[in-house]
Design goal:
By secondary structure, the chain is an alpha/beta fold. Strand 17 and strand 18 form a beta hairpin. The longest helix is centred in the N-terminal third of the chain and has 26 residues.
Length: 772
């Protein structure tokens, strides 16, 4: 049978994308590694086939060497001829000469340029305010106030004529800039040759020196009119090492410009060479000297101190005393034995009795001629409108707008009324969003309520202690503590009467006071011997002295006579209670701590042989010293927390009192701050306030400062500058006598001696006896 034909499969129609697929397949094959390798081999073979072949050169066969090899020569050391050594030395010398010549050419700055404006320089030398405005226009851009002109004149006198000057100005008034720029001008005009800059620490003083250097380096006006100083400095190009060999017309300038502790200005034509040194006030100050290029040795002739106390120093009595001693001793002795030195100190009072407060006080330090300025000399009278201004200001700040638009608009609407009575010396001191200097001052006061009086008025609050732990009474508050009893009359509540006498060269101060067992006090009488004709006088202005009253010219003789007159008179007086019952002085204390009077007091008291009379020695124990309460009590002595009476049995000594006056003054302060009518309060007898003003001033003559040492804190009392405190000393002795008698304020511990029972009196004719 014939085979059946196999049917063919139907072929699909060619796709339109077939050419594209074939091209992609061919490209993929071409990209495969095998294909690429084959392609490279083909190209290499084709290149080799077309390259021309160069015939190789036949190598010549080597000729045989039958001769013996030559003998090696011995290496001989080549001798150098003397001529070549000399030549080398000559070459080296020539190279050194060329190097030095190049170096000299680099160090030589050429001749000093001429003065740009001799007339301007001459005018400024005669007018210090003009010089400051002319040469430092960027620093003193605002007009000077009358205060500034007064300060500049004081500085001119110090720089040209000598003397000392202490300046207290508000922060931001430019006092430090004035001092710095005046010192620069003093060096440039030749008024001073050796200035010492003093700061609270070395870094502060170095910053002052760097400011002076920066002005001398960069100030184009100084360069123009003082080229003999500023041109060599400018030629250093801020590279201090160049000044070591700098020359002008072949002569050394002898300048020193490296570091922040000193600099020496250039010497040109034998002139110049002034120097400035910077040191911390507690650093190494003694023995400063400088040798000029001509061989002359000079000592400092001027010093400038700036903010010599830090915040911590102002709180430390010990540190303030230390710096004050350095100023009086080391600093004033910088010029050498017997030579005066001029200087000024720019300061801001931080606390009453701090270094600034003392230097500015003309009574305590008259040689410094202190000037104390305030930002506002007199405040406006309309307090209500300014209180509203403060409220608007708070709202503006709460809304995040520091330009104070609402408060400023309130001030603008009430400008005349809110300015009434105000005196602001520097009228140009205010910001871009403020109307005038008064508004600026109020903004500062509202911004810094706790520090404004100190930093901007130079009048820190008098009644607040160093840490705010204890408030001290003011004279105004003391004169208002008038009781309901007459002079010399003892209130019924009082149980004891004590008296005290304080010795001074020209008079004796005395006081009589009554107390009760709770340490409430009533000042019965006080005065001075001899009597003075005025109700108010200071010790330095005393009218009648002991010597004038007695005709005795010696201190010892005058004191002996005064004690013989005053004390018997006090002891003979009877002080009647308001029920006519008389009381006499139970204990009279005499101050024997005044060095020159000690022997006189003891000699006079020994002659009296009275147990009522006792000498007194007050001592201000500091926090670093062992308190009296921690003393180990000896056999036979009496002691309390604030006082003790040493045992004298078996010795030739007289019984006497030693007391910690800091503790007792704190007690008196608390008594004078106690509200009237409460237990423990002290009062004055009935009299006009003017009659008690002198007493009040003396009782408030000291202020408290908290100190710390050996793990304990203590209130120390510091005398305000220019104040008398003699009746305060009498009050201290009376309070000590009361504490010895067992009196104690409620809540405090009294003496360790047995406390006597409260005594009451009843009338039996003219004889008073203790009631059973």
């Amino acid at each position: 049978m014939p085979k059946k034909a196999t049917p063919k499969r139907p072929t699909a129609a060619k796709s339109k994308n077939a050419p594209r697929k074939a091209a992609r397949k061919k490209a993929a094959i071409a990209k495969s590694p095998a294909k690429r390798t084959a392609k490279k081999a083909t190209k290499k073979a084709a290149k080799k086939a077309t390259k021309k072949k160069t015939p190789k050169r036949k190598k010549r066969p080597p000729t045989p060497n039958t001769a013996a090899p030559p003998a090696k020569k011995k290496a001989t050391k080549r001798k150098r001829s003397p001529l070549s050594d000399a030549a080398k030395r000559s070459n080296r010398k020539a190279a050194a000469i060329r190097s030095r010549k190049i170096s000299r050419d680099e160090q030589e700055i050429g001749p000093i340029p001429p003065i740009a404006d001799p007339a301007r320089r001459a005018a400024c030398e005669k007018d210090l305010p003009l010089a400051l405005k002319t040469y430092f226009p960027k620093i003193f851009s605002k007009p000077f106030s009358p205060q500034h002109y007064e300060v500049i004149e004081k500085m001119r006198v110090v720089l040209q004529e000598g003397g000392l000057f202490a300046l207290g100005m508000p922060r931001g008034s430019g006092k430090t800039s004035l001092a710095t720029c005046c010192d620069i001008l003093a060096l440039l005009f030749g008024w001073k040759k050796f200035i010492v800059l003093l700061g609270p620490i070395q870094k502060h003083a170095s910053d002052m020196l760097d400011e002076m250097k920066e002005e001398l380096e960069k100030n184009d006006l100084l360069l123009a009119d003082f080229p003999e100083v500023c041109y060599p400095i400018r030629e250093l190009n801020f590279t201090p090492s160049r000044c070591r060999a700098q020359t002008t017309e072949g002569k050394h300038t002898h300048m020193q410009w490296k570091g922040s502790k000193r600099f020496v200005l250039p010497t040109v034509n034998g002139q110049g060479g002034a120097t400035v040194r910077a040191v911390g006030v507690t650093g190494n100050i003694r023995g400063m000297s400088h040798r000029l290029p001509g061989g002359e040795k000079i000592r400092p002739d001027k010093f400038s101190g700036d903010d010599l106390q830090k915040a911590g120093t102002a709180r430390s009595v010990e540190q303030v005393n230390k710096i004050e001693e350095i100023l009086r001793g080391d600093v004033l002795g910088l010029a050498g034995p017997g030579q005066p030195i001029s200087g000024f100190v720019t300061i801001t009072v931080q606390r009453l009795g701090d270094l600034a407060d003392r230097l500015l006080d003309r009574t305590q330090n008259p040689e410094y001629n202190g000037l104390r300025f305030a930002l506002v000399e007199q405040w406006p009278t309309n307090e209500r409108l300014w209180a509203e201004y403060a409220e608007h200001r708070d709202i503006d700040l709460a809304n995040g707008d520091a330009t104070l638009p609402t408060a400023t608009e309130h001030y603008r609407r009430n400008l005349k009324a809110m300015r009434l009575g105000a005196v602001v010396p520097w009228k140009e001191r205010f910001g871009p969003h403020e109307i005038d200097a008064l508004q600026h001052a109020y903004n500062l006061k509202l911004k810094n309520p706790t520090t404004f009086d100190a930093e901007y008025q130079n009048q820190p609050t008098a009644s607040i202690s160093a840490e705010g732990l204890i408030e001290s009474p003011t004279s105004d508050t003391i004169v208002k503590r008038i009781g309901g009893y007459a002079r010399g009359e003892v209130p019924y509540e009082a149980t004891r009467v004590f008296s005290a006498v304080d010795l001074q060269d020209n008079c004796l101060f005395w006081m009589v006071a009554a107390v009760d067992e709770d340490l409430s006090g009533w000042i019965l009488d006080y005065g001075a011997w001899p009597d003075q004709p005025s109700i108010y006088w200071s010790y330095n202005q005393i009218h009648t002295t002991i010597q004038q009253h007695t005709g005795i010219n010696t201190l010892t003789g005058g004191w002996f006579h005064a004690l013989s007159q005053l004390i018997p008179d006090l002891m003979s007086r009877q002080y009647k209670r308001d029920n006519d019952a008389p009381m006499q002085i139970e204990k009279l204390i005499v101050d024997a701590n005044y060095g020159r009077s000690t022997k006189t007091v003891y000699s006079w008291l020994r002659q009296q042989s009275s147990p009522i009379l006792m000498p007194f020695h007050g001592k201000g124990y500091t926090a670093k010293q062992t308190p009296l309460a921690a003393r180990k009590k000896k056999v036979g002595e009496q002691a309390g927390i604030e006082w003790f009476v040493p045992a004298v049995k078996g010795t030739r000594e007289m019984r006497h009192i030693i007391a910690d006056v800091n503790l007792i003054k704190t007690t008196i302060c608390e008594r004078l701050m106690q509200p009237m009518g409460e237990v423990g309060a002290w009062q004055l007898f009935k009299a006009p306030a003017a009659a008690h003003r002198m007493l009040a001033d003396q009782l408030s003559a000291e202020y408290p400062v908290e100190t710390e040492g050996r793990g304990r804190k203590l209130i120390e009392w510091i005398l305000r500058p220019g104040r008398d405190n003699h009746w305060l000393d009498c009050a201290v002795m009376i309070a000590t006598a009361a504490l010895m008698a067992g009196c104690a304020a409620p809540g405090t511990s009294g003496a360790t001696v047995r406390r006597p029972k409260r005594r009451e009196y009843r009338e039996l004719g003219d004889v008073m006896k203790p009631a059973r």
